[in-house]
Amino acid sequence: MKQHSAGLVRDLRHPDADQVDEIFSSSFQATLLEEILSDHGARPATKTAKRRHRRSFKTSIVVGAAAVLVTVIVFQVVPGSSGGPSSAAAAVLTQAATAAGNQPPVLLGPGQFLYTETRLLQSVTWALGDNEPSWQFDTTQDETIQTWQAADGSGRELVTYNSPPQFTTPASQHGWVLSGEPSIASVTNTPSGQEDYTFIPSDAPSSEGTPGQAPADDAGLPTEPDSLRHVIEHGGPDIPPSVSANVTDPSTPAGTFGSAAEILETPATGVTPALRSALFQVMAGVQGVELLGQATDRAGRSGTEIASPMTPFGDRYEIIVDDATGQILQNEEVLVDPSLSTPLQQKYFGNTAGEVEGWTDYLSAGIVSSTSAEPTTPPS
Amino acid sequence: VAATSDERFERVYGDHFQRVAAYLLARSDRDLAQDALAKTFEIAWRRIDDVPDDPLPWLFGVARKVLADLRRSQGRANALFARMASTIEHHHAATDDADAAMDRLIALDALKSLPELDREALLLIAWEGLTEKQTAQALGCSRGALAVRLHRARSRLKELMRQPVANEDPPSAPVVSANASRVLPVHIFKESI
What we know:
The structure holds two protein chains of two kinds.
Chain A: H1 5-11, H2 20-23, H3 26-38, E1 46-49, H4 59-62, H5 67-75, H6 87-101, E2 113-128, E3 135-149, E4 155-161, E5 166-167, H7 170-178, E6 195-199, E7 216-217, H8 225-234, H9 253-265, E8 268-269, H10 273-284, E9 290-296, E10 302-307, E11 315-321, E12 328-335, H11 343-349, E13 356-368
Parallel strand pairs in A: 7-8
Antiparallel strand pairs in A: 1-2, 2-3, 2-13, 3-4, 3-5, 4-6, 9-10, 10-11, 11-12, 12-13
Helix pairs in contact in A: 6-10, 8-10, 9-10
Chain B: H1 5-25, H2 30-46, H3 55-74, H4 80-92, H5 98-112, H6 116-126, H7 132-139, H8 143-162, H9 186-192
Helix pairs in contact in B: 1-2, 1-3, 2-3, 3-7, 4-5, 5-8, 6-7, 6-8, 7-8
């Protein structure tokens, strides 16, 4: 190989991208601007997810454009600091590292599917109506999502609704009224009121169906805790400067904690006992982790609850870990300091300390042989 | 004096039209790019109060989703790889030697094998020149999660590109046929040489 991979990737960019002026003339640019500014009605409906819960398939289908802003608000990480790690919390996480290190690896063979079942509070931001400015409101809904993912991206997603949508705040309900009280019911496609989607391989033509997405492959992640933390906070150790010239602001401790937990929670292949153990060790080393004590998740399972440090936006992660297996049973996002919330958060998502902004219960995971099968053994 | 919403939008539009158009043209044909461009800035205008001080990542995030929605509604395939193959065929074929041609094919195949968000993270940095912080904003994820995506993507890319080929002799035939919309899978290509 003569050329570095980063250079090759850059060179694959289509040359049209450098010829914008030739393709879109100045008159086109001016006309488009004029049309947009003169069009003060017909606001499109956008249904957006507030939280980036792990919805490997559906997220790419239903999330609208406006989701970008909200997810950025919630997940944007800026520098910060907090106190040293709680020794009690760190001890629990270290114990979890040992337990998780005894669980089998996740290997996905031909004809097999990675199955996951999660129950979560799905938040949806709506921007509707013909009025100006737009009326916006937020709803939440208790859902159970089952996914089957093959290595080629084919698979299935089944969404079951456990409750009707709820408005997050009185202001959100008011926004719904002002928007003309549109239907906020989920669009289902089965007689039993579920959403059931089937996916074809990710590289198949979309004319044959909806291409799915293969699960992430964690096999390349370092299993030495310091190296892994470095990857989480700064990216890979051998990234050429030409590709990554701006690694300037390391994650906050909350970001490191949340990212490590997210990797543990995310359906992925190539997950080894050593990686699981290393992820918990990274979390154990985060400054400001706090032991909350024994807790029970929404599915009635008990474990030990640990809190992350607070994010720059005043909330934190609170996870419940199964002491025996090291599995994360539940992850909540809890508002701790409303004064740090952004105005948008306060307006649409509430502003009460202790409020649970989102939660996910990880109910089951495993390898199965069809898109109708579920694991028969406890999750690992 | 604070700018009005229209004034702010005009500034955002003027400052970023080129970048958003380039983003879309790298991933779709002119017609689809035009539709997506109009839709992206229409959303930006309607949500101008929500557009961050650094609008570009937000705009790329919107454009990415708008493009995906338009593809679905129009029943069109993702043109990203066809555009890459076209780039190899029309813009590198004349100058590439056999090794370079193979390297590009392998790079393209490696990119195809990545999960969509991992690949997009890589392309936003390599093609659009975003910082990692901006890329995380565009994809709506934390910087930590982005770092993991990038690490996965780069590791996968390096791994695939280091795999030995069956024969080091250069291919004697064009690696992409004249009317091919998709490049040959690299494993087929390797077996054929």
